[in-house]
Design brief:
The complex is a heterodimer. Chain A has helices spanning 8-16, 44-57, 89-109, 127-142, 152-158, 186-199, 243-249, 312-325, 374-387, 401-404; strands at 34-40, 62-65, 81-82, 120-124, 148-151, 174-178, 182-183, 203-205, 210-216, 219-225, 228-237, 256-266, 276-279, 284-288, 294-304, 334-345, 351-354, 360-364. In chain A, helix 2 runs parallel beside helix 6, helix 2 packs across helix 9 (374-387) and helix 3 (89-109) crosses helix 9 (374-387). Chain A is an alpha/beta fold. Chain A starts with 7 loop residues before the first helix and ends in a 16-residue tail after the last helix. The longest helix of chain A has 21 residues, at 89-109. In chain B, strand 4 (52-58) and strand 5 (66-72) form a beta hairpin. Chain B has one domain (3-24, 42-83): Folate-binding superfamily (Folate-binding fold), CATH 3.30.2270.10. Chain B is globular, with a radius of gyration of 14 Å. Helix content of chain B is 9%, strand content 38%. The two termini of chain B are 24 Å apart. Chain A binds chain B through residues 244-245, 248, 253-258, 302-307, 311-313, 346, 402-403, 415-416, 419, and chain B through 1-2, 13-15, 19, 21-22, 36-37, 40-41, 43-50, 53, 55, 71, 73-76.
């Protein structure tokens, strides 16, 4: 049966029927005995991978195995920011490829992901930082990514509510803007990919925990789950903060640690901020949702954690930076805070690669930048699985780069850049 | 808020401490031949266990000593704290 198309006509048609005949967006199948490909993890990246396997590679005998419910992990816990303002070629070209997928996503998925290219501004608070931003901006432009270096007065025109007073500890010198960056409705991304993948024959299996792997002679044969054993020719791991838990079952030790990141939203207020803005003298970022909430985030809690909930000292630290940037934030009440678990790689860049086990593929290490990478990650991971080799866009994201010294050290700070 | 019992100073809040990572990792001995794999294991590879995790913290706003903490990475419960040179 062909999937119903969402349009103004289907809306009107269903309105006359009292909205009682909408089809389910995706089914709830029982697992088959065998698949061509199993993707473990029904988050944004896993759903996107399954979608592109079906769409780009005609592989639709695919299952997504999700321990909880789709979209319940980091794709539902992020601050919705999309950008490609990276200096290094590997990150810049990969992310900009993703920007093009974002621009067409609502049409491609027939699902409004509310992509809003509202621009991101990274604030600079010293001459040295302006020089560094100038360098990064030039590198971005060489890779075809839009970048604009703003001076203090140009920043003031865009965000006059920021603290431009003279006697502050971190005065605003200017900023680097990527006008084409923005935000999207994170849940819609998960739902849009899930609906299309399901329509193309992918089985989305929720509430199904992977308890083990069937590996023989260095080749993957299948998985053991809470709903029984399932065979597969190829298996892709796409489980972000839970990667190490599955790696242990495979006797693999990976260059990632799982850490806790919190985010929060204020009570909704009238429109004041129509960009994404980051504080340059610490780690704080802010945007305003369509509902009017100020969406804020910053540093990791700083110690290994699988808790999906954080502690107040880090929130206090992060919001102190926020108030230094936007003093009006101090007047707002906090509406919600939450946490997610991040797969922090040792150089701050992700891994999309094959493994030493034949038929087993790895997608992890997204640190706190996984959401924006959703389409490009899914697209390149699908390619890596289908062709049994990385695409040139994810060649740099290799698993062995740590041992060979080919780190992608975007911050130029060496290993574990995320430890504060 | 974590409350960490420094073996030198007593129970203090998390704000006084700085995290130092997995305490079970051993630096390769430099008077021996060290392979690339040994360095890889030491510098980059981590088990990052869910559950009991032995880790280093520094009491940076207190006695400035490095200590070992045995903590659950899922519940955040702290079972035991030790001086840096003590074994569990």
């Amino acid at each position: 049966m062909a999937m119903q198309k969402y349009s103004v006509f289907s809306l009107i048609k269903n309105a006359f029927k009292g909205h009682k005949e909408w089809e389910v967006a995706w089914k709830d199948p029982t697992p088959k005995a065998e698949y061509d490909v199993i993707i473990i993890g029904g988050g944004g990246h896993g759903l996107a991978t399954a979608y592109y396997l079906a769409k780009e590679h005609n592989i639709s005998k695919v299952a997504i195995i999700e321990k909880g419910w789709i979209g319940g992990g980091n794709v539902g816990r992020n601050t919705t920011i999309i950008r490609s303002n990276y200096m290094h070629d590997e990150n810049g070209l990969f992310s900009e490829f993703g920007m093009n997928l974002w621009r067409n996503m609502s049409l491609d998925l027939n699902f409004n992901v509310m992509f809003s290219p509202r621009g991101i501004i990274n604030l600079a608070h010293s001459d040295a930082q302006m020089n560094a931003y100038s360098r990064r901006g030039n590198s971005m432009r060489l890779n075809g990514i839009d970048a604009v270096l703003l001076n203090r007065e140009e920043v003031r025109k865009i965000i006059p509510m920021a603290d431009f007073s003279e006697n502050v500890r971190f005065p605003i010198f200017g900023g680097l803007m990527q006008p084409s960056a923005g935000t999207a409705r994170h849940d819609a991304v998960a739902w849009g990919y899930a609906r299309q993948a399901d329509a193309m024959g992918v089985d989305i299996i929720q509430n199904c925990e992977v308890t083990g792997f069937d590996v023989s002679n260095g080749k993957i044969l299948g998985i053991r789950t809470s709903k029984g054993d399932i065979k597969a020719k190829k298996i892709g791991l796409c489980v972000a903060g839970s990667t190490n838990i599955l790696a242990e079952k495979l006797n693999m030790t990976l260059p990632i640690e799982t850490h806790l990141l919190q985010a929060c939203v204020s009570e909704p207020i009238k429109p004041i901020l129509d960009n994404v803005v980051t504080f340059g003298a610490g780690h704080f970022y802010c945007s305003q949702s369509d509902k009017g909430e100020m969406v804020m985030g910053g540093d990791l809690d700083g110690y290994n954690s699988y808790a999906q909930r954080g502690n107040l000292p880090t929130l206090q630290h992060v919001l102190t930076e926020g108030i230094a940037m936007f003093p009006f934030l101090s007047k707002l009440k906090m509406l919600r805070t939450w946490g997610g678990i991040m797969d922090m790689s040792m150089d701050g860049s992700p891994i999309i690669d094959k493994t030493h086990i034949e038929g087993l593929y790895l997608n992890c290490g997204w640190c706190y930048g996984g959401f924006k990478a959703t389409p490009a990650s899914g697209w390149t991971f699908a390619h890596t699985i289908a062709q049994d080799r990385p695409h040139e866009l994810n060649e740099g994201y290799s698993l062995n780069r740590f041992r060979t010294g080919h780190l992608i050290d975007e911050k130029g700070l060496g290993t574990k850049t995320w430890i504060s | 808020m974590l409350h960490i019992k420094c073996p030198h100073c007593g129970l203090r809040s998390q704000n006084e401490f700085s995290y130092g990572g997995d305490a079970s990792v051993k630096r390769p001995e430099l008077n021996k031949e060290v392979s690339d794999q040994d360095w890889d294991n030491f510098v980059y590879l981590r088990k990052s266990q869910r559950g009991k995790h032995l880790e280093l913290w520094q009491h940076i706003s207190g006695c400035r000593q490095w200590i070992k903490v045995e903590r659950d990475t899922f519940t955040h419960e702290i079972f035991k704290t030790l001086k840096a040179n003590e074994e569990v």
